[in-house]
Amino acid sequence: METEEERYNFLQKRSGLSKLEFARSLGVSKERGYSLSKGIYHASREILDKLSSIYNVNLNWFLLGEGSPFETEKATIKLLRQEAAAGRGREIEDYAEEETLKLPRSLISPYRPENLQAVYVAGDSMIGEHIYNGDAVIFHPGQIEGNGIYVLSLDTALLVKRVSFDDLPRSVSLISANQAYPPRQISGAELENLRIQGRVVTCVHKF
What secondary structure does DSSP assign to 10-60, as a single string? Predict the structure, then answer.
């Protein structure tokens, strides 16, 4: 199987579901499922998440044809039992409870699971980046490498935002992916209350 469409069709037949049922299980329409089966459309992040979570698909195999079709190895991520607001800020819990989140290792490749953490998301300000209320974002604590999506704390709020670092004047812009939330520029003394927790690596959707 050399193409993504061949691998998609293999998974559909292996599932025992009809083409329509398989498409619906991935949250897509009959028409989009047809496009996937013909190679007209490539799987989105949401579809990949469901292939991995529901069918235990090895995403390296699905996207690149590398390895075996199904995951055999799981990664365990530290999950902080507090919510990062994708919307208006929520207060940080000083001593968040910890759990673990198990997910296919291919979702976090090439990162090592012990170097990552996860928090749940609350709110709708990042829906344009396909980060929804109730999802878990996986982030690399301490990793700050240019503009991107980060978990951050501002005053007493834990947030998930797109961050733009501006040198002149020294400031940071927090940008939502929802037009209902305007960008916010942090500068001057307010920068002292801003802490970048880590860069978001991936997002795991709730089902």
Answer: HHHHHHT--HHHHHHHTT--HHHHHHHHTTSS---HHHHHHHHHHH-B-HH
